Amino acid sequence: DAGVIQSPRHEVTEMGQEVTLRCKPISGHNSLFWYRQTMMRGLELLIYFNNNVPIDDSGMPEDRFSAKMPNASFSTLKIQPSEPRDSAVYFCASSLRGGRYEQYFGPGTRLTVT
Amino acid sequence: AQTVTQSQPEMSVQEAETVTLSCTYDTSESDYYLFWYKQPPSRQMILVIRQEAYKQQNATENRFSVNFQKAAKSFSLKISDSQLGDAAMYFCAYRGQGAQKLVFGQGTRLTINP
Fold first, then answer.
1. How many Å apart are CA A107 and CA B45, to the nearest integer?
2. Cβ separation of A42 and B105 shorter than 8 Å?
3. Which of A75, A92, B47, B81 is most deeply buried (CB count within 10 A of its CB)?
């Protein structure tokens, strides 16, 4: 079975541009998570969905960030406008719903904003 | 809020030797889950081992085992017979029983010396 799929793997953009990161969770998983990894802050949860509904977006840094999950097999994380401090690796993860189930991570998208 | 602390930013070990990575956490919950994730240079997050807090028996997965001390809120990872492929960042993570978000430590970079 395919794991969590993320695209693009690498993204380089200029400050002020819109960036859209994409994620396809593992089929059958009903929870989806977006994490961000930076040297300064480590790995932190941005937002997560259960059954396509956003449950906790308290980690979203500011209004420039938005996430959607229009169906069970697709999610996007959008940054508009992007800033250099948004440079990071963004991970998508999915799992079955419930605290005891492990989260499976995608390969991540390395975003560089110049 | 729960916190996870990894006090060893870097560790090194000779190939075939045993190494222990430390992790402590802070929580007021009685039921939760603890995880160790491995992140090799490919940056893929890979689950190494998990422990349910209600289980007294320490989890083991082949060469990987944990020392779970619930009262001390300690969760260390022991890697036996270290191999070159074990070189990676290792993250300790906490997940509450009723929660779904993972709270990560800052990571320990493990180097294997041939």
1. 7
2. yes
3. A92
